[in-house]
Structure formats: structure tokens, C-alpha cells
Write the C-alpha cells for this entry.
Amino acid sequence: MTMANHGSIFIDFYRQAYDTVMMEPFISRFKEFSLKGDRQGMIRVIIELPCVLNTKITKSYKGKNDQQAALLYQKSLDIMKEGKNKMDEESKACNILTEALFAASACSLIFMNALLERAKHWYKLGAWLRCLKDCECMLALPLSFYDEDAENKNIYLVYKKECFHLKHECSRKLEITIRRKKKTRGNSSGMHCSSAEITTVKNVVSTPTVHGKLNSSLKSCSDAVAFQFDNNRGRHLVATRDICAGSILIVDQPFSSSIDKEALDRNCLHCYSSLKLEDNVRIPCRMCQTVSYCTETCRKESWEMYHKYECMILNLFLEEGFNQRKNKLSHLLLAYRTTLIAVLYPNEKKYNDTETKHKPSNLNTEFFKQHQSKEKHTVISNTNKIYDPLDYTTVLQLETNCTNVDPNVNAICSIEAVFIAKCLIFSLDEIGIDSLDNEKFITLATATLQHLQAINCNAYEIIENIYNGITHVWEPRNVGCAIYTTVSLTNHSCYPNIVRHSYPSGKVVVRALRCIGKGNEILDCYGPQFLNEEKLARREYLWKKYNFVCECDACKYNWQFPLQDTLNYKCKTCFKTGYSFNEIKNSMHKIKHCSQCNEKLDYGKLNKQLSRSIERRVNAISKMYQGCYKEALNQLLDHIDLVERFLEEPNIESIKTQQCLIQCYNFFGCISIN
């Protein structure tokens, strides 16, 4: 049976496989392997199923259609002839030309016509950066496309010359515009900014670096962070010195990443930048109509690194029903890419090394040795070992909870892993890389199963933030997901002391959300915080997903939200809770002694400091409304430093300030508009 209907291949495969494996004799054998954590055994049970043996993977992608592209191109010309409002018609024409570009073959005359026409429209609209990107796309077209067609070759050379001229003019005008923007920004009137105004001000997102020196053993971390291991906490990170709020502790790049189905037409497949921002354009893949890029550079890098191995079968992951399952497109595509990267690229030649120009001609033999070895992957507990986030060994150390998971869940993951491995073999065969025997197929499927299980426990979201002009709040929206092997070293707390933000190319920046004392653990949040869920609900979620009972301070002391407005001071020497802000305010005696260590403190002076600092926090919120996030951030960091030093946790003032800090950092990371 060959399942050639693109709308049903995976769904039919999954249903048949699941229904069969749930019957004897398969289910008894599968459960035995599942309880032992024997992935290879689980995979061997699945590949014996009749539907697995009979399923053949075929090409499944939306190819080019030059006839459709020609009709769209003509439609754009007709709009300009009939148009009354020139600016509106230019914009409409650009949208239609974008559709034409996605439908047209990259080597066709219609593609060149639509691309040059769109570049001209951007120029007329004053969208210089968009025009530049289209010119770069035209100039990147290889002459070999047109060698056999003399007429098209001559047209390409004429268009290329025109693009060089447009590129020069746009570069000149862009410099003038940037100078004007800087001058305008310096003379801003302090009015509230709209979503469009804020995203216009910030065109380029640059990824920051860690504060202080780089860690000698943790490649993604600051030297303010150290790796530790013990039997209770497992692998975890601690502060090597006192850390101030706002310090950048980790800048991690993903071992692998993938995009959500909903983001395919609004975000770049490669760097995940929003295509809705003022200066971005949508550039198509040269083979399919499914994915989009923000620059020709992203298109080229994506193709060389991974997309040529998924383009022909990508639509299999987009089937109706497939994306509504527990493991959605981004997780399954992430498992596919993780296995692909591991099997194609040895550690010394990373998949995202832009200097690697040639495609791999052989599979990575080390990959098969790692997965065929009878020795289990032991957890890295050696604190002296170099921890490289792009080393596949670090992926193999990620927790999977394989033996603790319900066998039915392992069965679902095993079926998915076999299907993904079949897709991978089909793609490698189409590219002309090694033909794989049955044992290598089992190894591929086993590795993919491990990746799927690790993703369920360790995948992190890639986020962009959308500005709500009514509430003046940046609201997160998922773009995709990624495996970050360094960030995965952080343990959970329902009151985390760090915050993560997404940056271009899926990089994640981890900042201290409040002060972290020397020797204290660096703590992330894996799910609901105490601010929005009761303890029992939090613990139930964490147990079901991650198989642990949370014992963080918020759970141990059952912190409840909303917190009381009372602000209690703590002794700076012994940290015992002392007097409240209101007690001091109404007291005749402002200088008090700690009841435990007898430390003397001028609480009257401290009350004045805190009152002035709270006023600055309120002022910072006003600046955030105006779009002045950098200025607001400095005030907030000063305030939280005072609050953390003198007030008992948890307190409403610290919570409010942390939420404001998160909003500031939302602006500095990846953003978009609706």
C-alpha cells in the first residue's frame, strides 16, 4: 500500500499503527520494553506492524505554478492602471506581487518581472530597506538559470543592472532617513507611542552578550554562573558571586529549532524575525510555496543547513489533524531536524557553521556508534568538562523520563519516531546521500524517539512580543520551539529568579530578574508561577509533565497571590523580619534594633528612600508608555536593588517591579505587530 494522498499519509499511518500496537501480542511486548526504557526494543515492535512495512513516503510539497504566477502578475499591473489612490494601489500591488513570487519558478521570466516590479513599488513607497532586500534577491539569482535561454539571460542582465542602480539609490536614501530618525527621536515630545510607532523606532534586533567574563567551561554562560551536580538537585547552575538584577547570565543558541504552523507565513523560517515589521519582506523558497524568509541570506543559509532535506516532505507535517495532536508541528519538526543535524554533521563541522559551503556526502558515523552502543548515556556530572550547546553529547544528556512515562504515551512517540525516520530516509535518498540498511533505520528511529521524549521535557518556546496599544503591554506570541542544552541545566521554581527572551536565529538571552546571592541556585520556571496558579494545580502540572514534586519556596511556604500590601523590612545582618513600612511611618521612634541580632538601623531614613524609589518606579511606567524603555529600565533596576536588599520576600513591590522589567526586556527582544 502506497499512501500517496497528501491529506492522509500520517493520519492513516498513525491510526493503523496505534490500533494494531494496542492489541496482543504487540502491546505486552511493547509495555515490557517501555518499563525498561529500552527504546530500540520499542522501535522494533513498531516496525513489525504491517502498516509500517507497507507505507511508502512520497513527495509532499506545494510546488511552483508559473501559470498562476503570470495571472497574479497581470492582476498587479491592472490594479496600477485602474487605481485612483496611488499609495493604496502601490501597496495592494506589492501584496499581489508577493503571491506571484511565491507561485513562480525562480528560473522563470515571471519571477524576475514580479521581483523587479515589487522592488520598484517599494522604492516609490519610500520603503528603502524592503527595496534593498528585493534587489539582493535579484542579484543572488545565478546566471546558470538562464544559460540555455539567451532571451531570459539578456533580460536578467538588464534587470541586474537596474537593481544595482536601485540598490545604490536606496542605500543613499536609507542613510538620510536614519539620520532624520535619530534627530526626531532626540526631540520626542513624550506622547504615548502606538504599536506601529514603537516597532518603527526599533528596526534591528541585536543579540547582547553575557555580562562579565565568559565562563571557561560553560560556553554560553557568564563566569558568574557555575555548573554543579548532586543526587537531589541533579545538574544545576549556581551563582559564583552576588548577581544584580538585569545581569545577562546566559546567551544560548539552539542545537536545533523549528517553527509553528501558524507562523509559517508571518515569520522567517530561518531567523524567526517577524515579516510584519515595517522593513521586512517575504522572500519565497525556490522550490516550494510553503515557507518564507526575510532576506536572501536567510533563504540561502536555511537551504544549505536543513531545508533542502525537508522541503519535499514538509507538507506531510502540515496535514489536517496532525497539528492538533499532542505533539504539534513544531515539536515533530524539531525532532526531525535534531536527528538530521546529528546524523549529517559531526561536532567539528556544526550544522549552523556558515563557512560550511558544501553539502555532506556521507552520514556521521559517530552518530550510529553513539546510539548502537549498549552502554547507556550517563549524565554529565563532571564540572570541569567543556559544555558546548552545539555538541550532540549535550542533547543526549537531556532528561526523557522514558521509564516513568505511561506506555501508551511512549507508543505514540514511537509511532511518530518511525514515521519521522521514514521521512528522513526518503529525503536523504532524494539528495543522494547513503542508502541506509534496516539496522541504520532502527538507529535513526531510536534516536528520534529519544529526541521526541527529550523535547517533551526540555523544549523551550521561541517567542515574539506584540504591543497592545490599549493596555501598553507587550504580549507574547509563540513562533516556534528549540532545544537549548545550557538553559536546560536550570532547575524549576514557581518564583523564578531569571527570565528568558528570544532573539534572532532562535537565540535565547537569560537575565537575572532580581538579585541572586552568591551560592544560590539559578532558577527558571517550567510552567505556571505562584502569581497565577494555586500550589496544588502547579504541582499537578509539574508532576504530570516533568515527574517531580516542586519544593521551591513558593510551594514550601504556600505563598498566595494576590499578596498583602504590607511591606516588611528585613534585618540586613541576620535577615530576620522586622518592622513594616507603615509601622515606621506611624512611629515616633525611627531608629530600631533587630530583635534577634540587635543590629541598629535608621528605619526613618530607609522609609524616605523607599518612598522616593517607589515614585521612580511609577515614573518608569510612564516612560514605558512613551516608548522610552531604556530610561525606564535603569530606574527599575535601581528600585529593585533597594527593594531586594531591605524588604522581606515575597512582597508586592518586588513583584510589580519584576513585571515592569520583563516588559522592558520584551521590547529589546524579538517583536512584531498584529
In short: The two ends are 45 Å apart (CA to CA).
